[in-house]
Amino acid sequence: MSPTPTATELTPALLIDSSPFLQAIVQIIRANDAYGTYRNWADELLLKPYIVTKADKKDISLEDEIDPLTKSRILVFYRAIAYCIEQETGSLAQVVVVLNHEGFGWALVFAGRLILVSKTLRDAQRFGFRSLDKMHAEGTKLVEKGIELAKQYPEVGEL
Amino acid sequence: MSPTPTATELTPALLIDSSPFLQAIVQIIRANDAYGTYRNWADELLLKPYIVTKADKKDISLEDEIDPLTKSRILVFYRAIAYCIEQETGSLAQVVVVLNHEGFGWALVFAGRLILVSKTLRDAQRFGFRSLDKMHAEGTKLVEKGIELAKQYPEVGEL
User: Fold this and answer.
1) pTM here?
2) 8 A C-beta contact, residue B90 and residue B148
3) Which of A35, A37, A110, B82 has its CA 20 to 30 A from that of B36?
4) Measured between beta carbons, which residues in chain B are less than 8 angstroms from residue A156?
5) SS3 assignment, position A88
6) Quick check: B96 and A98 CB within 8 A?
7) Is A110 in a helix, a strand, or coil?
């Protein structure tokens, strides 16, 4: 039995428009686009490299160094999370992504002395999501958890 | 007028013996010494690469990539801080050092969601201290501040 596609899977453009998290990613990509390469690209096309199917993942070797473009995508993913948290809490959030040669490492988003997002990364060479839906869900979950922490420990976030 | 040398500057071996922080560094270096290269080296000799004079610094170009040995020394420095904090607080501390090609970056020591040490790094190619005294003082200061934070916000440190 194949799963019924959800409405958003059928209309990615609509999903992007209604997801502040996906919009933040698009905005960061466009802000870094110094030469206007992506000027005429649809948002959906900009987000496409984040969609990595099971079959795609199989084709990406874990023996190789992580592709600089993949690393940059991971960084933008967490910067978008930091941006969305900032929008809600008003406090500046820093992003640190550190990966070793085997694709293991950490992604941290923090404000003051408070870590808003703490993720261990593994097999970072294969970073990606099965669908925009899943990407939206994962990003939004991390944003919400971060906002919750920032509100719970405002003092630590301002140290 | 040349500064009067302090007693500890005259007797580095004594200083190392009486500094839990410097001892932690020595211990980590020896623990990583899988081939026994340093087995017969005095502690003082192991710590020597951490001593970088003003003249030494001038000779280290900031245009070049950071030397992997320097990077590893930075990591060991912060791991020793994490170790000393752990000894006092009992909670496991993680260390993340991230540097870009220009020698700028972050060193973070954290437990749970609490950042115990947060340092921005610059000109990391020239990482080092003028004397063992200064190194002991800097490390010990960061350890004490970290312990203070861990005691002040135990809940965040255990998230």
Assistant:
1) 0.87
2) no
3) B82
4) 114, 153, 156
5) helix
6) yes
7) strand
